[in-house]
Amino acid sequence: MRDHTIPGVALAILAMIVLAALLPEPRRSAPAALVAPGQDRIEAELERYRSMMAGGDPFSNPGYLNVDRGEQLWSTPAGQKNADLSICDLGKGAGVVVGAFAALPRYFADAGRVLDLEGRLLWCMVHIQGRSAVELIKLRFSNPDHTSDLEDLSAFVASKSNGMKLAPPLGHAREKAALAAGEALFFRRQGPFDMSCASCHGVSGRRIRLQPLPAFSEVKEARAVMSSWPAYRVSQNALRTMEHRLYDCFWQMRLPKADYASDGVIALTSYLAHKGAGAVIQVPSIKR
Ligand code: HEC
What are the backbone dihedrals phi and psi of residue 89, each rounded to the nearest 5 degrees, phi first? Predict the structure, then answer.
């Protein structure tokens, strides 16, 4: 007898793919007919940056402005305690930035949590500088009206791992737990569209409109992603970090807003970082 469940499953998958193709990008509500020229413009911009960089000038990447701002912020006193970040321990000892990003996320005993880069910077800004987490999180993503210290500091610290291999540690039980939770979250279908991360990033070759979707099951693709965040995003005229990328994908899944540096986002980042382990970090990159 024929198995009548297969067409049902196939239909469901087809419906999901069609639905995925119809999902608008965050904050872009232009009707479909207007999207293509926008895409062309962004592609043309990307090409312009790529050729400038190929011309041997990596500093033509506007993301280096964020790196510079971040470097200044690192050593500028701020907050109620009027302290700079020179005693912030990113996992390699107080004040050590070189190589720190390549070994994140990791467990921090003082915080009692596994933290990603952004989460650790936030922790240091709150605990060392006496700044308000609420205020910092309000400005977590830059826009044309304000810069983001979290983005700039992330760009600076991450760039200090350039040329190094991503190797998040897995010695602590909490690191193992974060990895396991991240894997579970990655495959968990949820939200009004009943989607998981794997719905879009589970197999090679999927795309939404023009964008190929990286598959984290493929080491090569996972490494290409994990070697290249933070990134200067041409479509947003802004430097973005992994926290923002995942925030965007939560939005695409129509999930409740992802809380910044929450255990869930950090668990997902841990999973992605382990999938992409061995990637040679080169940031900030330029992305669409
Ligand atoms: C509806 C489809 C969809 C779902 C579901 C989805 N994403 Fe994405 N994801 C995208 C799109 C679209 C992009 C951007 C691709 C581009 O612009 O090149 C993207 C990009 C990314 C990137 C950056 C890729 C790169 O090339 O640098 C990461 C990391 C990522 N997603 C992780 C996740 C995680 C983790 C989840 C689950 C919480 C998730 N995504 C769920 C569609 C999705």
Answer: -100, 110
Q: Which residues line ligand 1 (CB under 6 A)?
A: 20, 23, 186, 195, 197, 199-201, 208, 211, 213-214, 225, 228, 245-246, 249-250, 252-253, 268, 272, 288
- Identify each DSSP E strand in 94-230 by its residue range: 106-108, 113-115, 207-208, 211-212
CA distance 106 to 89: 12
Q: How many CB atoms lie within 10 A of CB 46?
A: 16
Per residue in 71-93, pLDDT (tens digit) is 999 999 999 999 999 999 999 99
Domain assignment present for residue 111? The answer is yes
Of 118, 146, 113, 147, which Cα lies nearest the Cα of 133? 118
Residues in the chain: 288
* CATH number of 270's domain: 1.10.760.10
The model's confidence at residue 209, banded by pLDDT at 50, 70 and 90, is confident
| Full residue range of the structural domain in which residue 220 is found | 50-287
Average pLDDT, the chain: 88
Q: How many domains does the chain have?
A: 1
Is 182 contained in some domain? yes
Local structure of 170: helix, strand or coil? coil
